[in-house]
Amino acid sequence: MKDVAAELGVSTATVSRALKDDPAISLATRQAVAEVALRVQYRPSAAARRLRTKSTSLIGVVMQSVGDGYIGAVVLGIQSRARELGYQPLFFATEGRTDLESQALEVFLSEQVTELITVSPSAGVPHQAVAEGLHVAVINSDEAVPARRIERVATGKVSAVGPVWAAEPMIKHIAFDDLGAGRLATTYLTELGHRSFVHLRGPNVRSSLLRLLGYRQALTEAGLWPQPVLTAAEPVMQSREAAVADFLNTAEPPVAMVAYDDMSAVAALHAAHRAGWRVPEDLSVVGIDDIQFAAYTNPGLTTVAQPKHRLGALAVDAVLERDAAEVTVLDGELVIRESTSAPTSRGPR
Amino acid sequence: MKDVAAELGVSTATVSRALKDDPAISLATRQAVAEVALRVQYRPSAAARRLRTKSTSLIGVVMQSVGDGYIGAVVLGIQSRARELGYQPLFFATEGRTDLESQALEVFLSEQVTELITVSPSAGVPHQAVAEGLHVAVINSDEAVPARRIERVATGKVSAVGPVWAAEPMIKHIAFDDLGAGRLATTYLTELGHRSFVHLRGPNVRSSLLRLLGYRQALTEAGLWPQPVLTAAEPVMQSREAAVADFLNTAEPPVAMVAYDDMSAVAALHAAHRAGWRVPEDLSVVGIDDIQFAAYTNPGLTTVAQPKHRLGALAVDAVLERDAAEVTVLDGELVIRESTSAPTSRGPR
DNA sequence: TGGGGTGATGTAATCGTTTAACTTCGCAAT
DNA sequence: ATTGCGAAGTTAAACGATTACATCACCCCA
Predict the structure, then answer these.
(1) Is B156 left (phi over 0), alpha (psi -120 to 50) or beta?
(2) Which end of chain A is least crowded, N or C, by CB within 10 Å?
(3) CB < 8 Å & 24+ apart, contacts of A127-132
(4) Does the C-beta of B29 come within 7 A of strand D?
């Protein structure tokens, strides 16, 4: 504010008033101030404003949790670790609207946040954020580029290092081993004795491509590639269901399906149910994520669990310790329920 | 801080140092300061501290949404309305630990928050909060006491006023019409021609009791009371499932079930599936909430939708406008899917 | 010629903490 | 006696904005 004032040869009081469009300030001055403020990227300090005005524009919200899905669990992990370290998380849900992302960043900059975590997908924010000098960590990023230092974390302990990964310098990545999960799910099915497969693909983001790759690798190793892949690019349940329904029309049981994630698997179960395919007799399904719901689908969903809480917690650590690994990879774990079985001899449909 | 300093006849600098346990301050003084600080309920100003130190202990978190369950949707409603009005929500998930509730309040007080919203259940916070002079609104409170002014909001518009309700002066309540939802669900089943019912009760909180009451009222009016009620006091899926499984063992189809909420209904569907009961042929199930998942259970769940987003938005308004109604009630809406049908003549199990 | 009004801006205090730099005091060593 | 030194505080500036009050130039009208 001082800078803006100095540049125009006026007092900070004038600037303050001009920015509030106080009619006491001449129009010419107001415009000049607005122009300079924009040019020098003036950003008001929320702290100073609050201190002076004693009004914070803050609404406290207390709740138990924030849902049992993938993001909810990650958020809980972030929150609990952040508080352990004396930090206060400031959440911003974009509701899928890209325009809100920059708005989120703007809010954070005014709050003088210096650490930012994003839970993918969330487009450009991370890059804008590093440009502003923030320390940023991305959980399950959508992007990929070669990395310099990677730590692979297997169920609890740091273990190895490998060159698979993605990183813009300055952005820390915390990621689930999507490729491994795809393989794990697929291998489980091949070992069960399945020969006829199908993969229900997710949207065109990293995690989806890697899971597909895992599916492919596992099948190639088993000598079963190629096998069909269903595309439902939009994360919209209807389109997933439709894709599965179309496929089931032309296929013969038994089939083993690897779904992009638990929600996709749920859509598949729904489609199967409607098409009269029995699970797991006609169709084995395995998901990825292990959301709370997965235990209560009919039948219970076999899935590769993602360490969601831990992803959140590690992101906090990554963003706070400047020297942490660029990329941290966490392994999934197979959770076997009732949606999978060995292929049955073709029974009555 | 000035007060503490004055009371002890020392400078604020000393107090500041003493509170950080700076060894430059004599032990005696440190203890004295700590004691007085506690007595006068000294609460540091986060804003001032940030302004001075330029370190905010804030971590920005960006994500798409926060889950598709009941709370996630409410939270989205809160956030979007708050931002529209230029407010910044500060979320705190207690993860069910009651001790964290006071901690949440403590954080908010340091942030000089003056408006608080809680999404039930969340025990004592609201009362502590009013004691501290905050304006508080509770969404779907667990408690009940006579109210002075109620507004009933039916699908969009404020319409009537009635004397059913709960309010500690100073606490605004935004609530879903649980009783009405219970009735609506039940009546739908009676009109379908069902004669044999069962209700799967939720935990011992207001919403659960009211839904049960609605079930009872509707059946009484239809001349069908009494009918069984299953109790699964803990919001634990296992116990719900077990209760349903036990019941199905001794019952004869067709049965019509009103579940406490969608998650309970899911547990019921799961139990039914395992017990070999067909839905909806043997068992009709209706839930309450309409979480995103409800559309994808097998079969799709008929449910009474709660206007979740709106509950959140209205809570923001309530907390910001001091003169709003003490209690606002929102109506549910029946969403018909495939988990319900007219009772069938007893088919083969 | 002066009094008063008005429009545009400046001055300076203030919000609650932190912290660099300084003071004060008692005591020991010279 | 003087000096030096550490312990225990104090003083005051600073953080970045807001705002009551003061100032100033200029014009209008008597």
Answers:
(1) left
(2) C
(3) A127/A168, A127/A171, A128/A102, A129/A105, A130/A168, A130/A170, A130/A171, A132/A105
(4) yes
